[in-house]
């Protein structure tokens, strides 16, 4: 019986610790060098425009929660560019209409 509990605990740990972003974009010198996952075409186009205006190196991982997206940036992405990229997301708070 104890082994069943240990296996269940190991599975829960594996699910929680496993990094599974919906989208992953890698930027290098102001260009998108690679992307993986279900990348929205309009978001990718916006990211390319932003990277041309504000060149940087780094990685952007986008996770989907129930209603919105959660974004993780590498440390090399500047704060100003982080804010611009967050606003470029399709379901970001900045683009949703308030009542």
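^ Assign residues to that structure.
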């Amino acid at each position: 019986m104890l082994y069943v509990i240990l296996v269940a605990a190991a599975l829960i740990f594996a699910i929680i610790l496993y990094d599974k972003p919906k989208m992953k974009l890698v930027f290098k010198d102001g260009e998108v060098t690679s992307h993986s996952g279900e990348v929205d075409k309009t978001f990718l186009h916006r990211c390319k425009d932003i990277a041309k205006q504000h060149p940087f190196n780094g990685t952007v991982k986008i996770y989907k929660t129930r209603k919105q997206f959660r974004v993780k940036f590498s440390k090399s992405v500047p704060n100003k560019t982080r804010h611009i990229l967050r606003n470029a997301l399709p379901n970001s708070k900045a683009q949703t209409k308030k009542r």
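The chain has a mean pLDDT of 85.
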